[in-house]
Write a structure and sequence with these properties.
Number of strands: 3
CATH topology: Arc Repressor Mutant, subunit A
Number of helices: 7
CATH architecture: Orthogonal Bundle
Helix content: 55-70%
Structural class: mainly alpha
Number of domains: 1
CATH superfamily: Winged helix-like DNA-binding domain superfamily/Winged helix DNA-binding domain
Largest sheet: 3 strands, antiparallel
Distance between the termini: 21 Å
């Protein structure tokens, strides 16, 4: 299991939305399969924009690949990287609000700092 600081850094730097993490979770649960965008839209019950943005984010992070036919699959990552991905998914399942805050904090650090100034306690 990766250290908490490393895990939180990975989440904040690798995902632009929780939807990207949801797409990744779907793919991790089916590591040998590949899916068209339409199949992901149907399976996850989301819009094409969500899939497009999430897949773009995951491509940039090197976590998925898209073949010549446009089929999306989990990128063959090293075992250490896969352990980090699984830890991120597990952390999201246990603490979805915390993960959302990590993602938003990375996307909008100024707003997050302003909001944190009014908190009475830390998580």
């Amino acid at each position: 299991m990766p250290e908490q600081d490393h895990l939180e850094s990975f989440i904040g730097n690798s995902f632009r939305s929780v939807w990207a993490l949801e797409v990744l979770q779907f793919l991790v649960e089916r590591p040998t399969a590949s899916f068209s965008s339409e199949e992901l839209i149907s399976a996850l019950r989301v819009s094409s924009a969500v899939i497009s943005q999430s897949v773009g984010n995951l491509l940039a992070a090197g976590l998925v690949m898209v073949d010549g036919d446009g089929r999306i699959s989990l990128h063959a990552v090293k075992e250490d990287d896969l352990a980090l991905v699984r830890a991120a998914i597990d952390f999201y399942q246990r603490s979805p609000d915390k993960v959302r805050r990590l993602i938003v904090a990375q996307a909008a650090p100024g707003i997050t700092a302003f909001a944190d100034a009014f908190k009475l306690r830390r998580d």
